[in-house]
Amino acid sequence: MSDISLCYTKQGAGPPLLLLHGNGEDGSYFIHQMEYFSRRYTVYAVDTRGHGQSPRGTAPFTIAQFAEDLSEFMDEQGILRAAILGFSDGGNIALTFALAHPGRVSRLILNGANLDPSGVTPQVQIPIVLGYKIASLFAGKSPKAKAHAEMLSLMVNEPHIDPEELKKLRARTLVIVGTKDMIKDEHTLLIARSLPRSQLEIIAGDHFIAAKNPHAFNRAVDRFLSEP
Fold first, then answer.
1. Domain 8-116+159-226 maps to which CATH number in 3.40.50.300, 3.40.1180.10, 3.40.50.1820, 3.40.1000.10?
2. Torsion-angle region of residue 12: left (phi > 0), alpha (psi -120 to 50) or beta?
3. Per-residue pLDDT tens for 109-146?
4. Burial class for 71, CB neighbours closer than 10 Å (0-12, 13-18, 19+)
């Protein structure tokens, strides 16, 4: 059993659709998706452990732990199987969850996910690594620095997903990114090509297309979810 219960917001009626936010954010990131998708789905915007209103708890602060937290959240809500949309670290959690619990995923939407830290462009990753090193130096003296180091550690040291593992996934998957995303183009292509039942969608914008270009993003996701 988990040491915590995840906080969430819920809206709509219909099949379950889980929304997983990125690093350092919370479920409110999906403000432009909740209303739109709640017309046809029961939408859950979940705060990851140690993010938003969800407590940190004592369990490891890792992508694998977050995936197990999600499994327990689904149990608590009585959700056997769901469509999962994950953004950035949320996409990494969604992918890790799908590999561990393939039968619980009806459809998968990976928005700006990566398999390992090398998938992030150097101009974004280098400052994150430097910030992590600085925060780690002060982590022993400052709880705030410790929390900051822990958050950045998710991007510096995780995830570790072998592209070969993706070949096992049977869920239909939408890989969706921005034209100027912080995930390298070749890395996104590697993910899409490694998944046997995937399609790739590229939307005008940067990493944050769900927030900055919601009209195009929502339509692309809706089309994918509506396909028989």
1. 3.40.50.1820
2. left
3. 999 999 999 999 999 999 999 999 999 999 999 999 99
4. middle
